[in-house]
Amino acid sequence: MAEVKRAYDASGRRERAVARRLAVVQAAQELFERDGFRSTTIAAVARTAGVSAESVYKGFGTKAALAKAVFDLVIAGDDEPIPVAERPEAIAIQAEPDVRRKLALYVEGFAHRQQRSAKVQILIRDGRHVDDTLEEVWQNLQTERLTGMTMLATHLHSTGQLRPGLPLDETRDTLWTYTSIDLYDLLVLTRTWPLPRYETWLTNAITNALCP
Hints:
Layout: H1 2-35, H2 42-49, H3 53-60, H4 63-76, H5 88-95, H6 99-127, H7 133-158, H8 168-178, H9 181-190, H10 195-210
Helix pairs in contact: 1-2, 1-4, 2-3, 4-6, 4-7, 5-6, 6-7, 6-10, 7-8, 8-10
DNA-binding region: 41-60
Organism: Kribbella qitaiheensis
Domain HTH tetR-type: 18-78
């Protein structure tokens, strides 16, 4: 009976720790987007989340690391520990036999991820010019995106349906360029394109670049 109680207590502590971490990340997102990175303090994040500043430092280490955690949350849309490759969207893309439809499915999900994450991406992109602690975070985002586009490019090439003679690295770099936050910033945030228009344009642009 004591072993069951200890297991229950440990499970409860883990659940509370996960809930506190989520509250901190959500508080940081709110304050970053409202006040900016430099003006947001760890103390303010802690107050908003209802935890101690010490626990925030213990959980994340730096404010820059907290910004990365915010990005990870908004890009996924949840805090579930499910790898990207195992999520339903990725499974559907893998299973789709037609490469053009694969691209359309990918862009559909990607456009909504950009919409969710645009503010924090731009905060990190632009903030690194005035706060160099964000430079490493920005470079990590670019590296992660390049890794993702390498995986997608490799999968697309495996279909044998791309433009004949198209090098794998060109496919990867084309995808990497079109998925930059800069294009979303220019077209959706600056030129005020509705999301469906951006999604259609992006699908056509990538398809025309990669397919016969």
